[in-house]
Amino acid sequence: MHPEIDRIIVTAEQLAQRNAELGRQITADYAGKPLTVVSILRGSIIFVADLIRHIELDLELDFIGAASYGDDTETSGHVDIRKHLDGKVHDRHVLLVDDILDTGYTIKTVCELIRISHPLSLKTAVAFDKPARRKVALEADYVGFTIDPVFIVGYGLDLAQKYRNLPYIGVPKKEVLDRTFGTRP
Ligand code: IMP
Ligand code: MG
Question: Which of these, 22, 40, 61, 170, could form a disulfide with 98 (CB 3.0-4.6 Å)?
Fold first, then answer.
């Protein structure tokens, strides 16, 4: 385990098993339909790479770049779009994939952007869901793991751009969080 990680809450094996289940479900739900999987950069790239290898359908892969301002545990609600879709989706079903559904601002903003292109349908898949932190009324259609409202890293998720490459989901040690975000009362 990485020395700055306090504990692992989802193992690489659990991630792999859940991705296979989600892939089977998505394969059944989109059979015979033109599917474009849209991954939100950067956090979702590891999840989307694993997930699409369990979707046994022809699909297109596209990316949208989105970021909330600042390297902080709290999002401001302002989501900055840094890259738009490359392909057209007006005649395709879109499955939007993100790493984590937290306040919901990111997915809400990106969904509004994609709806401008009038896809045949729009659904969402997230590796992790923190329902206790939601600020907007929004649920994902496919959820890997529902977790407590703790700050997690690994499997694409970062703390100030670090730890994305950890193969498991961990909680950073308290001193690491304090060093990055400052001590909180
Ligand atoms: P939302 O807009 O608040 O739903 O947050 C979505 C984005 O915030 C994610 O795509 C992540 O980049 C980031 N985020 C939210 N919670 C965590 C976490 O626990 N660890 C790392 N990043 C997080
Ligand atoms: Mg992030």
Answer: 40
